[in-house]
Amino acid sequence: MGDPFIRHIELLGYEKRFYPSQHYVYMFLVKWNDLSEKLVYRRFTEIYEFHKALKEMFPIESGDINAEKRIIPHLPAPKWFDGQRSTQNRQGTLAEYCYALVNLPHKISRCLHVVNFFKVRPDDMNPVTDSQIKKPEVFLLPKDAKKNPSDITGPIVLQTYRAIADYEKSSTSEMALQAGDMVDVVEKSENGWWFCQLKNKRGWVPAAYLEPLDGPDESEEQEPNYAGEEYIVQKSYTAVEEDELTLKEGDTIEVIHKLLDGWWVIRKDEATGYYPSMYLQKAGGANISVKSELRNRSAPPRRSTIRNAKSIHKQRRKSISQATCRRNSRQYIQSRRNTLENLQNKANVIFEKNEHEENKAKAQPAVPPRPSKDLILNRCTESTRRKIL
């Protein structure tokens, strides 16, 4: 009968599961060439990893060499947190992706990578559950919804982080931690406060106290952008550490490095230092005052101030020193100045050259000699000859 291949993949909906922690899985009905139909469950993170590997296997068809030759469908990358609304909104995107996938050339749609990913796994037949936790909630995709795809708007499944030190909460909205606690991150905020859950407890926790389980590096940390993004200070802050900056409300600064612990490296004129991101607002955006919950909450602690922090990883977190940021920032400012000076000098040279050419006296044509009387009498008309007689 030949090698198995997939005839059709239909997205049925999704399940909300509560074990080992709350997360969402999509339900696919996979129809095979032997006319069998199997039900499989996949997290969106799994689907996206499958998609990335598929693109690496077929670089031409994925558009890596020439974007115009891409035939492998697009799939938006996962973001922070996979809530129920984002899981629901993503169904249209996944339905279109699966339809396009099985209609690709056979070398792609019938390759082992695709076939193996959608094969039934043991946990598809018998999902791991806990009798103490409520059963999964099933949400079926309406028939008409399959015709209305919507773009991915939400982030991915709950991620588990480990506390690297004890943390005592300072308000009722926060959650205390002990070193080694495993928490599920429900929401990651740029201000450095993350909303987490631990068993039946929920609350805000400083991101500086958490580390991912798979490695010491935070994949979300960007490289510095020494060109800088313009922000407006929404709340004054007085520096406590030497590498922090003191700013007043209304100051305009440039953000050059956004860090997950809520302390961003910023530049004010030629001074570079750390500042709480919760007190900043991007320039040009809507003029929204600092939220009351942020106004009442102090800036989160920085990683460098945490004592007795014990990482489970042998390596240290990937970090860029303040000295490096300051040095590179100054180099960028100087290079920008040099560029502006060169442009100004070139403009001055062109202006002076044009001005010199405009002021330069134009060459006057030579005045021809007056013809003699004999020449006029011999060559000119009767009318002209009469005038000199």
From TrEMBL:
Highest taxon above the source species: Eukaryota
CC per GO annotation: cytoplasm; NADPH oxidase complex
Q: Where do transmembrane segments lie in this chain?
A: none
- Give the GO biological process terms: respiratory burst; superoxide anion generation
List GO molecular-function terms, semicolon-separated.
Answer: phosphatidylinositol binding; superoxide-generating NADPH oxidase activator activity
Task: Enumerate the spans annotated as PX domain.
Answer: 4-125
Indicate whether Cytoplasm appears among the record's keywords: yes
The principal location of this protein is cytoplasm
The record's region (Disordered) falls at: 353-374
Q: Sorted alphabetically, which keywords does the UniProt record give?
A: Cytoplasm, Phosphoprotein, Repeat, SH3 domain
Record Pfam families? NCF1_PBR_AIR, p47_phox_C, PX, SH3_1
**What range(s) does the SH3 domain occupy?**
156-215, 226-285
> Subcellular localization, per the record?
Cytoplasm
Q: Residues of the signal sequence?
A: none
Q: Is Cytoplasm included in the keywords of this UniProt record? A: yes
What protein name applies here?
Answer: NCF1 factor
**Species of the source:** Centropus unirufus
Q: What is the lineage of its organism?
A: Eukaryota, Metazoa, Chordata, Craniata, Vertebrata
Q: Which gene encodes it?
A: Ncf1
